[in-house]
Design a protein that fits this description.
about 280 residues; alpha/beta; 6-stranded mixed β-sheet; two-stranded parallel ribbon; 10 helices; 10 strands; about 35% helix
């Protein structure tokens, strides 16, 4: 493997006001960019961010010189709407990503009518607060399922050899029906909150296991293979970005990948804030 190849990352972004609150997941993200750059990675030339909050019929990348900070939520504290992430865009990389997808048979386009939604700019603001790394966003296609997104990631893998950090932002367990702002669990290294449902714990454990085993096949069929999948993800848009970054790390010759669990904690009773890296 190219020693300069960047890993691909999955982070859970939590609710929008997560960035205003203290907690283990926020502290983890604040240290992640610095730790990776200092110990494991060269500084990224650009970032391609796959957010759960931008869905389109076919894959699209944002090719703007200066992407807008999109506040795509309502009913939150006023200070949250004042936050801006003025990172420069990465239009050349966005067009190259679209070209790689087209070469693999996807009907992909680079567009000028989006920006960075909260699934993208919130984790990036914590990881790279100087907002000085060019960034473009990539859309998801919820109606196409997990295997489609794994294949998208495999098509984009060459970007990792060009200094591009591919980051997926979603949620390892994401069922808002059971969300509670008064219930948080500091870490899975401590006893879980009594309100943490068994189905959430089981799915989070299962996901950590397949990540560490690099089991791309299990992820592709997760809704059929894991009994708690529908409870953990009534809709799967918050897990689909994981398919992209796991697919981007698949070795073309062996069909295998290597995953690492970087962080595990909970917020809101049922939202897993897990993060993973793939080499």
């Amino acid at each position: 493997m190219n020693s300069d190849r960047l890993p691909s990352l999955f982070v859970s972004h939590g609710p929008p006001d997560f960035i205003l609150e203290d907690g283990p997941a926020r502290m983890f993200l604040e240290s992640l960019g610095q730790e990776l750059t200092g110990r494991e990675l060269p500084r990224p030339e650009a970032i391609l961010c796959v957010s759960a909050h931008w869905d389109t019929g076919t894959p699209q990348t944002v090719a703007l010189e200066q992407p807008e900070t999109i506040h795509d939520y309502y009913g939150f504290p006023e200070e949250l709407y004042a936050l801006q992430y003025p990172a420069p865009g990465a239009p050349v990389m966005a067009h190259e990503a679209a070209g790689l997808l087209q070469a693999s048979g996807f009907e992909a386009t680079a567009v000028m009518d989006w920006g960075l939604d909260h699934g993208a700019w919130i984790p990036l603001m914590l990881m790279y607060p100087d907002a000085d790394i060019p960034v473009a966003q990539l859309s998801i296609q919820p109606e196409r399922g997990m295997q489609h997104h794994i294949n998208v990631g495999r098509a984009l893998a060459p970007l990792r050899d060009q200094g591009v950090l591919i980051i997926a932002s979603g949620g390892a367990v994401h069922n808002l029906r059971y969300f509670s702002r008064t219930d948080t669990t500091p870490s899975l290294t401590s006893p879980p909150a009594t309100s943490l449902p068994d189905w959430a714990q089981r799915f989070d454990d299962w996901l950590a296991d397949i990540v560490e085993r690099g089991d791309v096949e299990a992820l592709g069929g997760y809704r059929q293979q894991q009994p708690d999948a529908v409870m953990a993800h009534p809709r799967d848009e918050h897990l689909l970005p994981l398919g992209v970054v796991m697919g981007a790390a698949v070795d073309d010759e062996t069909g295998e990948t290597t995953g690492r669990v970087l962080h595990r904690s909970w917020t809101g009773g049922t939202l897993s804030m897990a993060a993973y890296a793939f080499d």
